[in-house]
Structure formats: C-alpha cells, structure tokens
Amino acid sequence: MNINLTLIGQAIAFAIFVWFCVKYVWPPITAAMEARQKKIADGLSAADRASLDLELAQEKASKELQQAKEEAAALIDQANKRAAQIVEASKDDARKEGDKLIEQARAEIQQERIQARDALRKEVATLAIAGAEKILETSVDAKAHSEMLDKLAAEL
Amino acid sequence: MAADTPVEYIQHHLTNLTYGKLPEGYERADGTVLQEATWTMAHTGQEASDMGFMAFHVDTLGWSIFMGILFLGLFRMVAKKATTGVPGGLQNVVEMTFEFIQGIIRDGFHGRNPVIAPLALTIFVWIFLMNSLKLIPVDFIPQIAHFLGLEYFKIVPTTDPNGTFGISIGVFLLIIFYSIKVKGAGGFAKELSFTPFNHWALVPFNLVLEILGLLTKPLSLALRLFGNMYAGEVVFILIAILPFWVQWTLNVPWAIFHILVITLQAFIFTTLSVVYLSQAHEDH
C-alpha cells in the first residue's frame, strides 16, 4: 500500500497504451464499422429502389398486356370482317360465273337450234323440189322457181 | 509460506512484490546490515515500506503491462483483419465494445476530439482486464510465485493504489492539457478564478474551490476504483482463511457479484474520465 515509483511507471504504461490505441487500434476498426454501415444503408436503399422498380415494371407490364389484348381483339375483328368479305366476294364471283356459263350454254343451244332449223329447211326445200319434179316429171329450174322456193322455205 | 496466523496470511496477500532502494546502514530482515544504498527485492513488508518512494511494485507493473499488451494485441489483431462484411466472433466482441464506448462518448462528451474515444476504450478495456484478474482464486498465482522463489505476489493491479493513481494522473494531465489547449492558459485561469462566483473580491475563494475541485477528480477516480477492488480482494482473502469445504458457499456468490463490480468499476472510471474531459473542452 505504499505509494512509490510504480505510480509513474503505471502512468507511462497508460500513456503508451493510449497512444497505441489512438494510432493503431481505433481507426481501422471504426473505419471497418462505418464502411459496413454504409454498405448496409446502400443495400437497403437499393432494395427500396428495386421494389419501387418492380412495382413500376408490373404496372407497365399489365398496361402493355392490356394494350396487346386490345390490339389482338381488333386484329381478330378485322380478320373476321375480311374473311366475311372474301367469302361474300367469292360467292358473288361464283354466281356471276355460273350465270355466264348458263348464258353461254343457252346461246350455244340457240345457235345450234338455228343451224338445225336452217339445215332442216334446206333439206325440206330440196325434198320439196324433188317431190315437185317427180310430180311434174320435169326438172324444175331451181333458179326460175327460187322465189317460190324461198317463200316455201320461209313458211316452214 | 510466510503465513502462520490469519493476520499474517492477510498481510502477506496484501503485500506487493517490491523492487526498490534500501538506504545505507539499513538492517535487513535477516540481520545483515547494508554497507551502501542498494537496489534490491524486499523480503518483508517492512522492507518494502522502508524503501519509500524509490521502489517499484514488480507484480503491479508486470500484470498491468501484460494486460495492456493483451488488450492491444487482441484488438490490433482484429483491426488488421477487420472485414466490412459479416464479422467473425472476436470481431463481433470488439465491435460491441467499440459501440459501447461510442455510446459513452455520444452521451458524455460534447466536444470534438478524435483522441477521447480511443482513450476511453483503453481505460475501459484495460481496467476491465486488470479487475478481472481478481476472479482468479487468491492463492493460485501467489503459490506458483512462491514455488518460483518470489515471496510476495499480488496479481490485481487495481488493488494497488499506485495502479489506479497512475491511470487517474494520466487522465488528470489530459484534463489540464485540454483545458489549456481549448480555453488558452488565460481562459483556464479565468475559469478557475471567476467560477462559481463572478466577482473580483471572491477570486481567492473561487480559486481554492476550483483547484480543490480539480484535484478531487483524479483522487476520486483512483480511490473509488482502488477502494472497491481492495475491499473485494480483502473479502476474498478472508473467505480463503475459512476451511476449504465451506469456502465455495461464500466465494462463489462473491465472485458472481464481482463480475458486476469489475465491469461497473471499469465503466464508472471510463464514464467519469469522459465527463471530466468533456468539461475540459467546454468553453464558457
């Protein structure tokens, strides 16, 4: 319990320890702690930002989805209309074509009938002349009697 | 051991291993008379006290320096490997200590000084480690020292007033240094002269009051720590006198209680040092 030089020795040791602590212990550890604090704060704010971004992205995505749906619906509508138009047009065409074909067939039939009638008429005329010659027993001058013959043929 | 009666046992345990200077013509315990002043180890408590101021307590100095180096070595090791990522176990402990000290500084220190925080850390951890030596049973290390031929051995540096005064004087010098640095020599003198009563006629009275107040700071710091530790140590020694089979009923609760005292005293010393230094930084 005597006060002696130990006191001064202790004070010197204390001073050296404090100096060492100030110089070599305190700064690196507080620096590490502060750096970690900053890292954590940055991480947290990044997470906040990310969740905000996510929200925005979701909103945008749903908006785009909506738009795409609308576009698709419009396209389908258009396609349906177009299809109906095409069907209508092709029906029209087919009808026209059919009418034309029928017309053509009719015309052909008519022509053939006329031809047949003409041929028949000529035949009848010839037959009539031949019959007349037989009756008259003279040749009939076709040229002389052509007027009568034509009249006859027209009457048939 | 040189302890036959309980009183001798207690005195023996409260005597430091002292290396000091004995005067010329001194008659030593073994009867020899010194021809000239000699630096030597004290063989008895009487010799140790006769050495007066020119003596060292080898055990106090040795253990306190050992504890200081343990503290700085451990913390320096952590500082070198300090990672900003996930800290490991030891770094966690160190960082908790740092945050504890930073809390004390935030609450108690209102100036700006990069030295105060590491100073508080040193005071806290060093005193804590020195105090914790107390939890080693009182006879273990002295007995080992006895086998090594050392008559006296007291391992807890804070049960030696030299140990506690050494630290508090360090703090006191810092108080004076920062008072003068912050307020200037004139400002410091003015503060001592004109508080608490701001009148020229009361300057002498103020001076006496303020200087007393100033000197009380290191005194109270050192005596509080010393008193608590010393009293605790005496109780441990008294318990050690009892028959060995009842000792545990007393020294276990006392040791558990001392876990609190050890931390608390280290904390009080640190906090008060910080507060005193904060006052030194305040410019009125």
UniProtKB/TrEMBL annotation, chain A:
Record localization: Cell membrane; Endomembrane system
GO molecular function, one term: proton-transporting ATPase activity, rotational mechanism
Pfam families found in the cross-reference section: ATP-synt_B
Membrane topology: Single-pass membrane protein
Gene Ontology CC, one term: proton-transporting ATP synthase complex
Chain ranges passing through the membrane: 6-26
Coiled-coil annotated residue ranges, if any: 51-122
Subunit structure as annotated in this protein's UniProt entry: F-type ATPases have 2 components, F(1) - the catalytic core - and F(0) - the membrane proton channel. F(1) has five subunits: alpha(3), beta(3), gamma(1), delta(1), epsilon(1). F(0) has four main subunits: a(1), b(2) and c(10-14). The alpha and beta chains form an alternating ring which encloses part of the gamma chain. F(1) is attached to F(0) by a central stalk formed by the gamma and epsilon chains, while a peripheral stalk is formed by the delta and b chains.
Protein's job: F(1)F(0) ATP synthase produces ATP from ADP in the presence of a proton or sodium gradient. F-type ATPases consist of two structural domains, F(1) containing the extramembraneous catalytic core and F(0) containing the membrane proton channel, linked together by a central stalk and a peripheral stalk. During catalysis, ATP synthesis in the catalytic domain of F(1) is coupled via a rotary mechanism of the central stalk subunits to proton translocation.
UniProt name for this protein: ATP synthase subunit b
Species for this entry: Marinobacter persicus
Gene encoding the protein: atpF
From TrEMBL, chain B:
Gene3D superfamilies: ATP synthase, F0 complex, subunit A
Keyword Transport in record: yes
Gene Ontology molecular function: any one: proton-transporting ATP synthase activity, rotational mechanism
Compartments in which it is found: Cell membrane; Membrane
GO BP annotation list: proton motive force-driven plasma membrane ATP synthesis
One GO cellular component, as annotated: plasma membrane
Transmembrane segment boundaries: 61-79, 115-133, 163-180, 225-246, 252-277
Sorted UniProt keywords: ATP synthesis, Cell membrane, CF(0), Hydrogen ion transport, Ion transport, Membrane, Transmembrane, Transmembrane helix, Transport
Pfam family of the protein (one): ATP-synt_A
Superkingdom as given in the UniProt entry: Bacteria
Membrane topology: Multi-pass membrane protein
InterPro entries documented for this protein: ATP_syn_F0_a_bact/chloroplast, ATP_synth_F0_asu, ATP_synth_F0_asu_AS, F0_ATP_A_sf
Record family assignment: Belongs to the ATPase A chain family.
Function statement: Key component of the proton channel; it plays a direct role in the translocation of protons across the membrane.
The protein's name in its UniProt record: ATP synthase subunit a
Organism: Marinobacter persicus
